[in-house]
Description:
The complex is a heterodimer of chains A (263) and B (237). Chain A is 6% helix and 34% strand. Chain A has 3 helices and 13 strands, in the order ββαβααββββββββββ. In chain A, the strands form 3 sheets. A 6-stranded antiparallel beta sheet of chain A has the order 3-2-4-9-6-7. In chain A, strands 1-10-5-8 form a 4-stranded antiparallel beta sheet, with no helix packed on it. Chain A has a two-stranded antiparallel ribbon with strand order 11-12. The mean pLDDT of chain A is 94. In chain B, helix 1 runs parallel beside helix 2 and helix 3 packs parallel to helix 4. Chain B is globular and about 65 Å long. Chains A and B meet through helix 2, strand 11, strand 12 and strand 13 of A and strand 1, strand 2, strand 3, strand 4 and strand 5 of B.
Amino acid sequence: MAEQHRKTTLDSGWVAARSTEVKFTGTQLTTTHPPTGPTSPWMEALVPATVLATLVKNKVVPDPFYGLQNEHIVDIADSGRDYYTFWFFTTFNCKLSSNEHCDLNFRGINYSADVYLNGHEIILPKGMFRRHSIDVTDIVHADGTNLLAVLVHPPDHPGRIPPTGGQGGDHEIGKDVATQYVEGWDWMAPIRDRNTGIWDEVSISVTGPVKIIDPHLVSTFSDDYKKAYLHTTIELQNKSSRTAECSLSVQVTLEPEDSIFLV
Amino acid sequence: EHLQTQNLSVPANSRVQYTFPELIFSKPNLWWPNGMGKQSLYNVVISIDVKGFGESDSWSHHFGFRKIESHIDNATGGRLFKVNGEPIFIRGGNWILSDGLLRFSKKRYSTDIKFHADMNFNMIRCWGGGLAERPEFYHYCDYYGLLVWQEFWITGDVDGRGDPVSNPDGPLDHDLFLFCARDTVKLLRNHPSLALWVGGNEQIPPADINAALKYDLRLHPHFESKDENSKPVGDVS
Lengths: 263, 237
């Protein structure tokens, strides 16, 4: 019986460094020259979160939410995009049996990224509000440590904050598909890195030959809500080179309310 | 309570879409917004076994049986909502995000959203200049009964109605915008609290984007009006 499929979230043990301070390529970082830990220029990183969150955590910049400290953090318009283009690095293990498949998943990256895994490069397309799922079955070391480096680039149009501030600064950020408040609003000071970063969950998922993708659940009713119908549509991906004879199940159980526990 | 198993073949190196025959529930526990009843949630588990391998994958999600309708009320010009056929007086608040450096946590979501429920709110509006909120945000809205009005990433100030007027045609890459919108819908669409997708804040998206969103988000004809006696049949497309 194959091991149960499984998902592992990668939310610890990350380090980060400014791209301009790292002398190695992504291929070298994930083969011959991996960072040895949070030693300069590398620092402990917060993932998921933003570049600025990592800089605040390491006290490289003051916390922008106290007093006028945001004024002491250089804005991307003045520093240039490279200043907030950061490497993020971590390692993970992933045991794979025969006929198992492994995906590397990013649920949100702002704004684009180049991924390196064990020396292999994968360029992720732009867009803050999109998921990325990469089949890394042929790249992972099934019985050892895997080296993952992600070079994260800021939005293409970070814009410049006019001296008068204003809603959305000079509105340049609106040319990208990204959150717009980051140039500042009447209730909010500008965010200096425009929320660049691996801002949502990173995970490794292992499945057998067939993978379930994006199920869609819809309910319809009749008899004045006394009867309900649950419509379930899914996508299935067979990654193997043979037809898969499958048994597909959907099971629905009522979640016990707070005071009731199933024994 | 409800278990259904279907057998099917999936060709090598392929991707197929499959629809189960519908599951029928008599007198289901309905999901209601805060203040109108319980937020009954069911746990839906989908799993797939492959012959000669065993369990290949599984997926689970909390699901609430509810019907949410809304339309512009001619008398008031406002949007009138109904849940499970009952009109509801919307009491809601604006939401941008819980942290400007995107350091999100389940604990923070739970606290913030319970706070809204304790304030006797029944809706949260996710503003178009912020984010498409995350599954963890929606999980707690499901749990505490906060309906969600989720805007896409267009605002009047930045897209054509600001001073100076800028980006009258929205973002440069409309295909990218629609790709992100579709992927976001797939990420969030199973949450019972999701009540309304909205093109943007104080602005209608560019015509091509707006038309595509309206088309993609229309109620699929399959669900328009189910004939109770329709023969349940699996459908692989």
